[in-house]
Write a structure and sequence with these properties.
Blueprint (H helix, E strand, L loop, with lengths): L4 E2 L14 H9 L4 H14 L3 E2 L7 H17 L10 H8 L2
Parallel strand pairs: 1-2
Length: about 100
């Protein structure tokens, strides 16, 4: 069994038909066709990609995002100030 996170953004469907005309036109100009979404999803599955963002050229951006989230979550679990906020940093800033 394979699972995938698919994040296509705006898809050209009738979902937005009830919106104001200006909004509809703006969304249509940035919408991806359903066929392109399916093509990207199937290609990503075949390539073993767990996260598929069909319009994202640089797939390594997804990995970098995951690493940034891990760093932030790790820091959130620590007690105390980051060194850039401590007394030594304040003295350094004051001496400039």
């Amino acid at each position: 069994m394979n699972a995938q996170v698919l994040t296509p953004g705006v898809i050209a469907t009738d979902f937005h038909d009830g919106m104001a005309t200006a909004d509809q036109e703006r969304l249509k100009s940035m919408a991806m066709s359903p066929a392109d979404v399916v093509t990207a999803s199937l290609a990503a599955l075949a390539a073993g990609e767990v996260v598929c963002a069909p319009s994202l050229e640089d797939a390594t951006a997804i990995d970098r995002l995951g690493e940034a989230q891990r760093v932030l979550m790790g820091a959130a679990g620590k007690m105390g100030l980051a060194s850039r906020y401590g007394p030594e940093a304040r003295l350094d800033r004051d001496s400039r």
